[in-house]
Structure of Alpha/beta fold hydrolase:
Amino acid sequence: MTETTTGRLRVDGAELYYEVRGRGPLLLLIPGGTGGAASFEEIVDDLAADRTVVTYDPRGLSNSPLDDPAAPQRVEQHAEDALGLIDLLSPGEPVSVAGCSSGAIVAMHLLTAHPGRIARVVAHEPPLAEVLPDAAEHRVMLARVREAFDREGPMAAATVLAAGLRRPGESAGARPAAELSPRAAARVERSMADAPYFIGRVIPSFMAHVPDVDRLRALSDRLVLAAGADSHGELPYRPAALLAERFGTELVHFPGGHTGLSTHPAEFGKLLREVLDAR
């Protein structure tokens, strides 16, 4: 196991917990969902064999407390948090960034806001509903998520959200749930305490985020759009596929579905290394 150094970074309105492994060019991994730095625990040692790998808990999750627990969450602020870690750990040198789901949204905004600091971004299934032709339908869905959260709590909101992310016409239970290793299952269990914050505050804001598509197109030679091989047609798959088509770039298919990092960690990590090493 690679030696791990931990640290804390004070940012506007929060304190970030981060972990550093390896030596060499910096790779910042931005997690999605509630997993935080632990999301990458099954792939990080291999990636750190020839690079410095930084993982962290985004503001409000796990070990990165907010000054104001009720503060609104914005993609732009989360991207500035990521930039703070880059400036601290790789001053002056462009870095690679990989993000999954909500973390992919942050990574893409980081590229458009600070292109001079970013060498390459791998964005796996960013649920950018606003780029889709049926964005209005997804706005209605997000409003229902918020209503369910306010009326019945996070579990009811998660049910509404899960239905909105499925393929059109697909019912709950139409496909078997992806199997998790005991390690991944334990990680999910540990992160459940952060579900109310993530579902109630992060998801509605992040999925309503409007990216600068023209800016992304201009920087598309540094952007690798990725999706799960098993999630074709699902909402998080579609923005990556649509943007790759618009930009004339390849959509890279990673093993598994939206949570392929957890269900197929070895294969996911191997392909991520190949994509990062490609020039």
